Structures are given as structure tokens and as C-alpha cells.
Amino acid sequence: MSNMINLKNSYAFQIIWDTSNGKTYKYGANLSIDKKSVIYQNPLMAQAVKIHTWFSQTDYPNFRFSPALPLLKSSHHYVLVVDCVMIPENSVFIQLDFFNILNEKVNSIVADSNIIEFIFPKEATHYEISIVNASNQFLKFEKILLFESTNNFQKYAYDADANLIISDRNQMIEESVTFNSFHNQILTFSNLNGMLVCNPLIDFLEIDSMLNSNNYQPIENMVEYINTLSPSVKLVGHDVFSSILAIIIDQISTKKEYTVCTNFRELIDSGDYLNDVATKKVLDWFK
Q1: Domains of the chain by start residue, with CATH
Q2: Which of 5, 15, 236, 261 could form a disulfide with 178 if both were Cys (CB 3.0 to 4.6 A apart)?
Q3: What SS3 class is residue 44?
Q4: Contact 110, 93 (CB under 8 A)
Q5: Which of 184, 190, 234, 235 is nearest to 70 (CA)?
Q6: Chain segment 13-55, per-residue pLDDT in tens
Q7: Are residues 74 and 119 in contact, defined by beta-carbon separation less than 8 angstroms?
């Protein structure tokens, strides 16, 4: 694994595109929004115009919406991971603008990569993240993840090449693997006594899509990594989300022992997590 980023914390922030929590350039735009993604098309839009902007600080009487970005710490290191599809390739940029207490811009970063590492300026108090047009014809945006990073390995690392968050296999107390959890806009990591292996871009909507289409490509990297571990490794579900992942991976890879959370059948059968087709498939697989 060649491109590893050490994470300072056991959580990440998930930033979604919501027209009620940011500014979207709508003139001439065709905008389609569902639970999973935003599709934006505006082929006549001028270059270097901001398609959408999120804010960490807002003046409600003027903006009419609340901040969508978390507060960051001065001089700390951070990583942005952008989950989007664009046509043509490299036809949008990600721009970060940093401001001081007087709302004066103190620094900007413009990048065409989907992974951006940066240091929050010492003099900055708030910031903005923007998607900027560069002759884009089609944009499908799903989410941005924001991690705090560090130079030294703490507990978790992000493999940018495989798009996986993993914990140190040498610190496994038990031969077990677990997965991440979601709570509102926060993605949390917990390896219990085993090892964490997760794709941070996978959520309930992605699982729903996989189960309905029988296309499990989004978790292929997770499966490949788990298969490099001991054949006797156990898959551990500590909540509904991780339990569903454990069941799916057991079905599509080499059969492994797995456990699920307490009252899993009642929770998944409630219909609060997946649609009817996906729920039935999971329950059919569940032993």
C-alpha cells in the first residue's frame, strides 16, 4: 500500500450537497437531487465559476442557512476525499478558501485531485469549500469526507490507492474484522479487539444499490484485503450497518464465520435501513 495517510481521530465528517446548506449556481443549470447524489449539468456555464460552495461560518440574516462544515483547528493537518464523477475528466476543481476573523482571505488552495491534503492556516478562523467549473458538461456528486491527519500512525490509516481505512493488523487481539458505522453526518471507526477494514464512501444507500443491482464492485477492495488475512478471521457486526456488511462479504467471498449485533433481525426487518428487496435478500442470507 503505497499512499497511506495516518488519521488522528477515529471519525470523519461527511459533507453532502444540500441546496439548503450552501450556495449553488443555478442560472441555466439542470439540477437533479436524490437521497444518494446530485447531478449537475450546465454546459454553457463560464469557466472558473463556483458551482457549489459550503461554509463553516454563515451570517443567517444574509445567508438564510446554517454552516455545513465543521470547525477546524489552527495549524492542524487535514485531508479531503471527494466522491464524484465528472465529464470530461478533470473538468471541475476543488477550491478551499481560508479567512481570518475580519473575513479577509488569508490563503486559497485549488486542486484537480479527488484527495487533497492541507494545513489549516494559523491565522484562519473559518473556511469555504467550492466546486469550480473547468468546462464541465456533467457532474455527479455524492459526498466529501474530511479527516484530520497526522505524521505518525495513531490507530487508523487511509489507503488512498485502495480507498480503504484500516487499522494495524499487528495490534489485533482477536482474529476478527469489523467495519465502520454511520451516525448522521459523522463516520465513526471502531476495531473493537480485531481489525477495521472499510471503504469510507460506502453507506446505507450504497448497500441498498448493491443489493438491488447485484453489483458488489464498490466493496471489492475490502473483500480483496480481507482475503489477505488469516482464513480463520471472523467478520464482526457491532451495529446494523457493520452487520449487513459482514453478511454480504460472507456471501460474495470465501465463506467466513460472522456475528451480528443484538436484535439484528428485528432491526433490519423494521425497514428503517434498506428497501424491501434489499432487506429480504439480507434476511435470506442471514443464518
Answers
A1: 4-147 (2.60.120.260), 164-285 (no CATH)
A2: 236
A3: coil
A4: yes
A5: 184
A6: 999 998 777 789 999 999 998 878 999 999 999 999 999 999 9
A7: no
Q: What pTM does this model have?
A: 0.85
Q: Which three cell numbers stand for residue 13?
A: 465528517
CA distance 58 to 62: 8
Distance, in Å, from the CA atom of 159 to the CA atom of 170, rounded to the nearest integer, reads 17
Bridge partners of 181? 188
**CB of 107 closer than 8 Å to CB of 121:** yes
- 134 closest CA partner among 193, 187, 93, 86: 93
E strand residue ranges, the chain:
4-7, 11-15, 23-24, 30-33, 38-41, 50-55, 77-87, 92-99, 105-111, 115-119, 126-133, 138-149, 156-159, 164-167, 176-178, 181-183, 186-188, 195-198, 234-236, 258-259
Residue 26 per-residue DSSP state: -
pLDDT at 89: 94
Interatomic CA distance for residues 39 and 36, integer angstroms: 10
